[in-house]
Recover the amino acids of this structure.
């Protein structure tokens, strides 16, 4: 039984504001340990539940945040950027029996701690096939194409509610309760580790290869906070402006959908200027 952990940071224990997740800050250094602790708790529970192999894919920002020297010794990790499937790199091997979305958060425009979709502020909304789409919903569509079920989601309470819409059978762990975008009612790492470990162990009952989802076209709309960002996004072949601040594209399958989304967000991020965005 091989399990993939897609590890994001905004939904980790104790994380509540930008400096907690911005590489290079003092707060980020502090929160890296708690983030690694969440991952280790999940790894421990997965092995206790019957996993034979656990692969951790770093999925936040530079994708160099977890402390390898403190990682569970039986896990392996993909660290670093520029990966074909970004946040769910590794699932395309086709041998994953389950995926854990750890440290996830709500999408752009939603209520949740550090809510966003890929970019912190420039993107104000994303829709996948007409449904509001968080990173969790986008990634769930990708892993379904490889027959891999989402078995566990951790994050704040709003992220767990969001997960019910794209992975209704998955176990969830709310490591904190949303107060505002930059505040949460948090539990200490010792308590959240116990909860994550227990639910990861139980989640192994949901693991097992599924029939891959039938390849089908996906329509994505992305709304940004300034017209010139939509102009930049429309430079991608197949991406068209459907409003002053909104673009749309259709991809033949989930693999191409997420790759095009990454391209759009990369162009948008490069088109932003200091102060004015």
């Amino acid at each position: 039984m091989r399990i993939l952990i897609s590890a994001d940071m905004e939904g980790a224990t104790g994380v509540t504001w930008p400096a907690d997740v911005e590489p290079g800050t003092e707060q980020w250094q502090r929160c890296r340990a708690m983030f690694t602790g969440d991952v280790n708790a999940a790894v421990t529970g997965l092995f206790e539940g019957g996993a034979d192999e656990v692969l951790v894919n770093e999925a936040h920002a530079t994708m160099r945040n977890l402390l390898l020297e403190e990682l569970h010794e039986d896990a392996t990790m993909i660290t670093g950027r520029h990966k074909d499937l970004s946040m769910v790199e590794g699932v395309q091997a086709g041998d994953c029996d389950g995926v854990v979305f750890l440290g996830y958060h709500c999408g752009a425009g939603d209520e949740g701690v550090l809510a966003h979709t890929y970019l912190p502020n420039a993107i104000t909304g994303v829709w996948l096939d007409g449904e509001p789409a968080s990173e969790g919903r986008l990634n769930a569509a990708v892993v379904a194409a490889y027959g891999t079920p989402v078995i566990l989601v951790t994050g704040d309470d709003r992220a767990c509610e969001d997960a019910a819409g794209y992975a209704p059978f998955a176990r969830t762990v709310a490591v904190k309760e949303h107060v505002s975008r930059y505040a949460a009612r948090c539990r200490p790492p010792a308590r959240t580790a116990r909860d994550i470990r227990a639910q990861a162990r139980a989640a192994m009952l949901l693991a097992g290869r599924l029939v891959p989802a039938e390849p089908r076209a996906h329509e994505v709309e992305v709304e940004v906070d300034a017209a010139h960002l939509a102009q930049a996004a429309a430079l991608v072949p197949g991406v068209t402006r459907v409003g002053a601040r909104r673009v749309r594209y259709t991809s033949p399958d989930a693999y191409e959908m997420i790759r095009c989304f990454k391209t759009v967000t990369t162009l948008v991020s490069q088109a932003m200027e200091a102060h004015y965005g």
Notes: The radius of gyration is 18 Å. The first helix runs from residue 26 to 48. Helices lie at 26-48, 135-144, 157-166, 189-203, 227-233, 254-271. DSSP finds six helices and twelve strands in the chain.
